[in-house]
Design a protein that fits this description.
CATH architecture of the largest domain in chain B: Roll
Helix content of chain A: over 70%
CATH topology of the largest domain in chain B: Dipeptide-binding Protein, domain 3
Oligomer: heterodimer
Helix content of chain B: 25-40%
Protein name (chain B): Periplasmic dipeptide transport protein
Distance between the termini of chain B: 46 Å
Shape of chain A: globular
GO molecular function (chain B): peptide transmembrane transporter activity
Number of strands of chain A: 2
Family (chain B): Belongs to the bacterial solute-binding protein 5 family.
Radius of gyration of chain A: 24 Å
Radius of gyration of chain B: 26 Å
Keywords (chain B): Signal
Number of domains of chain B: 2
Largest sheet of chain A: 2 strands, antiparallel
Strand order of the largest sheet of chain A: 1-2
Shape of chain B: globular
GO biological process, one term (chain B): peptide transport
Largest interface: A-B, 63 and 66 residues
Strand content of chain B: 15-25%
């Protein structure tokens, strides 16, 4: 196991180098004028005739290997370049936004996994009965809903109409507290930092701002967990050892919870890990609608504007998260199921 | 199941209990939501509305417009507005004197001096960033468009050939030439004289005062001491070139500001696209009524609308197409105002031959030749084939009007009686039959019109051309293609677009700002109209455009600009679609808001406050 982990870790820089090479080559296929979009973000900005100067100033017309070499040399010095979309050094822009995305991901993952597995188990136990059909329809509707439609729906009902769950990260008064010198940032995640600073009012406020996006992500994402849980549970319930347990006269609840559910959870655990990692990169629309300034919306904008420094930085950042996330999933899989041997 | 339902509702209740619908939310804070965020806080570089919205209230200028009256100036950091009558405009309109106000404090407590004014203009001229606004100042003072051209003219070599990307001299022997250039060309043009600042223009420049007032943030006044302390040009002749065309993010003023304006810059949260300004209590003039401004970029329309409805925003940016979603909301009022802007359609007379939008590249029914629009009949046919009124109704929901040419209404040179094309398909057919000796009608043609996705005006315009022109002859084919902005920009800058829709927002309310832009061979939109157009403009338009800018008699200028517009009509140099009437949704509790046609963006923080 330990050698397996070391081997996987040693491959990380090689993988990231390969990714950076591919992405940079793709960006390099674009003309310098296309890449000018980073500097001239809309037709309204086409107000000076010196734009050609920008191309030579930023070396957009240099040969691609030269440009890549320049970028890579800076990378080795810990400099990912300047983000024109984030208006800050790329690494700083990524690190500033990462906690918001992580916070949203964690808060969303909990209900997605808990509700998804609970519904999946219920579905399996009521196989082909009304409850099973109802839950599956409910989940499929959520899965079919475009995030932006459901998100706007949530925003209009719970914020515009009821005034309950506002968009953004914090209300103005709470933001004032968070940005004050007396408030210490430990994690960058407002809810956790608020608790660590003993500010329950800020914690509740941050939580209120999280409800809308979490609700949206939960509803549109839980169908997958439900489906995996249901099919895994159905498979387990037909196994011999479950029949044996029932034949021994064990209480049905014990049969389900101790014997069936534990084994049924093995594929669910794997999928849950992937869901968390996937959520990190899949919050673009929800972040935009709920005005949460996370990585998703930032990188989407970077891609639109062809801000190659941000794109490269984002790709490496997400690449690293995905590699580490998948490694953790693989390791946890081996722990959950002793039959699995990674080496 | 029941337990979960009960718990859920309890959670909703607990979280919601603290929500109280206050009469006015955040009564001392004005929250304006728009798209994007400032490009930079450096007034020497900024050339976008989002930056202008902030800079206009943090910094001040020598003069200002008298409220919304764009024909009258009032003094600000100058104690008088120069006129020929008060003797502050002299030498046939080439010398302007501005007596500098005393007792004015910058936000950090430093006192304003005439040297600050001299420094501000000189620093920006020597900075002259690519894609920045300093061309206006350089044109007014020196009759050149860039510092690079000015150096090339005076020194014999363009500055860009003398200085590397890090601001170092390629040949150290050039240092003396550039020091002399500063001492002999730049320094004498802006000088301090007995408490006044004197500007000496190389020739009369009629709109000079128009490039200086409030809202013209490229003419903001800095605190020299602070700028030098932060790392801007030190004011010396030796080494000034190190500060030329510095990258946007490398400018010391990129994210810092210290002005004399009614609001001081507090924070630019670039993660949230949010700028916070606080009232400056040491302001020399009338203090702002509101304590705090939050200028916030929220790109998603639905979110902006929801925040306005909930009262967390006081004013939002709204494209006209969303009017129906807002107009019937409670506690919302919609202000409107005619902007000094036009949206026009122009032809490329000599398309780049490598363009993908010419089809076969010949008049064989499957394409067009690169010089298709050099034939006046083609241009005229397109002009008759456009339904101008429907465009205004569909895209702007009626909130717009059509000027005859590129000079918007309310400006010198505008004349509603000037000739303009009307929608007339019969005449369009007639012109197509004459085009290219009848070959266009006989063989047909195929071309592609591009628009950048997300731009409804461009899309609608292209689709209207398609529908109307294809109805004339089954051999006519127009493909309408939406592309991402980077691709549109690429095609536009490479001269590959056969025709393009493009807008212009006034930098300053003078016809030169529009006429030069669209019609002069060196105008921003001159080049993209192709080599043949440039030749035409050099011969027929440039002389009169250049004469008009030096003419100080308003009546004569009016006639000259009317003449230019007649030439544009007769030669079908383009079609103006509309001048927009902008809509500004805000809460009914917003008081003191006033539309100014020249304002940067939509916010107006001058006298704004909140009260039922």
């Amino acid at each position: 196991m330990i050698f397996y982990i070391i081997r996987r870790v040693l491959f990380i820089p090689i993988t990231l180098f390969g990714i950076s090479l591919i992405v940079f080559s793709m960006i390099g296929m674009l003309s310098p004028y296309q890449r000018l979009a980073t500097f001239i973000s809309s037709p309204d900005r086409l107000k000076s005739e010196n734009v050609d100067q920008l191309i030579s100033m930023y070396g957009l017309d240099d040969p691609i290997p030269v440009q890549y070499g320049r970028w890579f040399k800076n990378l080795l010095q810990g400099n990912l370049g300047w983000s024109y979309v984030g208006k800050a050094p790329v690494l700083q822009a990524l690190l500033q936004r990462f906690p918001y995305t992580l916070e949203l991901t964690l808060y969303s993952a909990i209900p997605i996994i808990l509700i998804g597995t609970w519904m999946g188990v219920l579905s399996a136990l009521h196989h082909n009965r009304t409850l099973d059909h109802s839950l599956r329809i409910f989940a499929v509707v959520g899965w079919s809903f475009p995030d932006f439609v459901f998100g706007l729906f949530v925003l209009m009902i719970f914020y515009s109409t009821l005034g309950l769950f506002p968009p953004g990260n914090l209300s103005l008064w709470a933001e004032g507290i968070v940005k004050s010198t007396s408030f210490r940032s430990f994690t960058g995640m407002t809810t956790i930092d608020a608790l660590l600073n003993g500010r329950l009012d800020v914690f509740v406020n941050a939580l209120r701002h999280l409800v809308g996006p979490v609700l949206t992500l939960t509803y549109v994402q839980l169908a997958y967990i439900l489906r995996i849980t249901r099919s895994s549970m159905l498979d387990v319930l037909q196994r011999d050892y479950v029949r044996t347990a029932r034949a021994k006269g064990l209480d049905e609840r014990i049969v389900i919870n101790k014997h069936a559910k534990r084994n049924a959870m093995i594929p669910v655990a794997t999928v849950s890990g992937q869901t968390i990692v996937g959520l990190m990169a899949g919050t673009v629309i929800v972040e935009a609608i709920f005005n949460r300034t996370g990585l998703g919306s930032f990188l989407a904008l970077a891609a639109q504007q062809l801000d190659y420094a941000s794109i490269m930085g984002g790709v490496l950042f997400f690449g690293l998260i995905l590699i580490i996330g998948n490694l953790l999933v693989d390791i946890s899989y081996a722990y959950i199921d002793p039959r699995v041997r990674l080496d | 199941m029941k337990k979960i339902l009960v718990l859920t509702w309890l959670l909703v209740f607990v979280l919601g209990i603290s929500v109280a619908f206050a009469e006015i939310k955040n009564p001392d804070t004005y929250v304006y939501l728009h798209i994007g965020e400032p490009d930079t806080l450096d007034s020497g570089y900024a050339y976008d509305n989002a930056s202008g919205e902030v800079l206009t209230y943090v910094y001040e200028n020598l003069i200002s417009y008298d409220g919304v009256n764009l024909q009258k100036f009032i003094p600000v950091l100058s104690t008088e507005v120069p006129t020929a009558e008060n003797g502050l405009i002299k030498d046939n309109g080439t010398t302007y004197l501005f007596p500098i106000r005393e007792g004015v404090k910058f936000h950090n407590g430093n006192e304003l001096t005439p040297e600050d004014v001299e420094y501000s203009f000189e620093r920006n001229i020597l900075f002259d960033p690519a894609n920045g606004p300093q061309w206006m100042i350089i044109e007014a003072l020196f009759n050149f468009q860039t510092l690079d051209d000015l150096v090339a003219d005076k020194v014999g070599t363009p500055l860009t050939d003398m200085v590397d990307e890090n601001g170092n001299l390629i040949n150290p022997d050039d240092a003396n030439k550039l020091i002399e250039f500063y001492q002999q060309v730049i320094d004498p043009v802006i000088e301090v004289q007995d408490g006044s600042v004197v500007f000496r223009l190389v020739r009369p420049f009629a709109p000079f005062l128009y490039i200086l007032p409030k809202h013209a943030y490229w003419s903001n006044i800095f605190d020299k001491e602070t700028c030098v302390e932060w790392g801007c040009w030190d004011g010396n002749a030796d080494g000034w070139w190190k500060y030329y065309n510095v990258k946007k993010e490398s400018s010391p003023l990129y994210d810092k500001a210290n002005g004399t304006g009614p609001f001081k810059f507090t924070e630019w949260d670039r993660t949230q696209q949010k700028v916070t300004l606080d009232r400056f209590d040491g302001y020399w003039g009338e203090k702002a009524k509101i304590a705090q401004i939050i200028d916030w970029g929220i790109d998603e329309w639905g979110t902006r609308r929801a925040m306005l409805e909930a009262g967390d925003a006081d004013q939002i940016y709204m494209p006209a197409q969303y009017l129906d979603q807002v107009k019937d909301l409670d506690d919302i009022k919609i202000e409107s105002g005619k902007r000094i802007t036009v949206t026009a359609f122009h032809f490329n007379w000599t398309v780049d031959k490598t363009s993908d939008f010419l089809g076969s590249g010949a008049l064989d029914g499957n394409g067009i030749p690169a010089d298709f629009f050099s034939d006046i009949h083609c241009r005229r046919a397109f002009s008759y084939a456009f339904d101008y009124d429907t465009m205004i109704q569909e895209v702007l929901l009626g909130y717009g009007e059509r000027p005859p040419s590129v000079i918007p209404s309310g400006m010198l040179g505008y004349n509603p009686d000037l000739p303009m094309f009307e929608f007339d398909l019969a005449k369009a057919e007639e012109e197509f039959k004459k085009a290219w000796d009848g070959k266009v009608w006989e063989n047909g043609f195929k071309l592609t019109l591009l628009y950048n996705t997300g731009n409804d005006a461009r899309q609608t315009a292209c689709e209207m051309f398609k529908e109307n022109i294809e109805s004339l002859n089954p051999k006519f084919k127009i493909d309408v293609q939406g592309v991402q902005w980077p691709n549109y920009l690429d095609a536009y800058k490479s001269g590959k677009l056969p025709a393009f829709v493009i807008g212009w927002i006034a930098d300053y309310p003078d016809p030169h700002n529009f006429i030069f832009t669209y019609f002069h061979s060196s105008g921003v939109y001159g080049g993209p109209q192709g080599e043949a157009y440039i030749n035409f403009a050099q011969e027929n338009l440039n002389p009169i455009i250049e004469a008009a800018i030096s003419e100080t008699d308003a009546t004569k200028r009016q006639n000259m600009y009317e003449e230019i517009q007649k030439i544009a009509y007769e030669n079908v140099l383009g079609l103006t679609f509309y001048q927009e009437i902008a809509l500004f949704p805000m809460k009914t509790w917003v008081q003191g808001w006033e539309f100014n046609p020249i304002q940067s963006g939509e916010a107006n923080y001058n006298g704004v406050y909140k009260a039922e």
